[in-house]
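Chain X:
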Amino acid sequence: MILSTVSSTAIEQAIQAREAPIWYQLYPTDSWAITQALVKRAETAGAPAIVFTVDNIAGRNTETDKRFARLDTRQCASCHIPDGPRNSAGNSISSKPMFRGLDLSGVTELYNASFTWDFVRRLRDVVKGKLLLKGIETREDAQLCLQHGVDGIIVSNHGGRSVETGRGTIESLAEVVDAVQGRVPVMIDSGFRRGTDVFKALAPGAKAVGIGRALCLGSGRFRTARGRESAGYSTR
């Protein structure tokens, strides 16, 4: 399991419930102090790996979501505190458990479009355990991962919903695997729904396949931020 920074459950609770370590998916914000605090908290809780998400940094192009929004009249603010810094979907992050106790006064973004490979190098110096980059889709970026001491790669496009009209991850996998030449493990996610999908990713060299949305939807029912149950709806 890779727990998101904006999860509705704190990493300590998730590890306690699972009775085993989990990985931590880092949304670093635009504050280096907050980035360090999130990494330290995750590693103190027992997370052996930090997964830096880079497939959503420049914002979203959620065309499908916008089309469906015409039919969905729910107001997001009814379940989310509207004040404070927001994520790319426009939701406040101040209510998320991983940010409680942190001073968010200087934070304006959950992501930062100005991140460069220098930030990865800086993060590598801070992370004591394994560091993975999630969102790599090209040979060139895979090679840069190796140059900057990254321990693993997740080929991802944030489920496709954030970078619509781009290449599918299964189309990007082979060149990433070829670029790293076995030096680090390559995993993949985004759009995997069936066992045959998984097989098609393992065959060209993926070491693991993420199935987050399929797992959530298969669970049947979810609790919203206000404690209500909603069939087939995840507040993540």
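Chain Y:
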Amino acid sequence: MKRSIQNSISGIRTEYISDGLDEKEVSSDPLVLFGEWMREAEKKVPETPNATFLATVGTGGKPSGRIVLLRGFDERGFVFFTNYESRKGTELRENNNASMTFFWNELFRQIRIEGKVFILPEEESDQYFSSRPRESQIAALVSEQSRKLENREFLEERLREIEKRYEDKPIPRPHNWGGYYLSPFSMEFWQGREFRLHDRILYHRNDHKGDWKIERLYP
């Protein structure tokens, strides 16, 4: 039986009109360019400009992905927080190779980052946890992230128990919750252009201490 992929989705078209991206004019440090793009995204992208698709590798080489929020970046890499015992936490413990993808449709831009993920020092996780809204702190204690939950009622009952236990008390950071940073060895900046002839500028290095090399890729 012959099948057709023609449907309403196949007809969606967007023309990417931009000034482009020139490898001769960008910074030699991809973190500098990332910072410039993130600041523009903060101005132009509503809601969550720091949302990124985090891809990890599970048992048998099977990939999995989800959206997380970037909470900072520096010379070490790109920081995010989660439950260490979640699916992504378990996969990162077994294989710390991962990637992040940022996509800002309003700017016709995306950034692809590949590298290795490491656990953030405890004092930095403590500092970030203490800055979260109290409700989010409690949620980190309530949730056994990625594990089977019988029903919503059990979750809400557990929430009430935790709220009562820590009434008028500071919320401690759970031992199984904290930060990671992705240390990059490859960063690709993608700028949409007309007729799908996009600009793709790749920064890469052989190890995490070497100098960055820059090259242009075919669209």
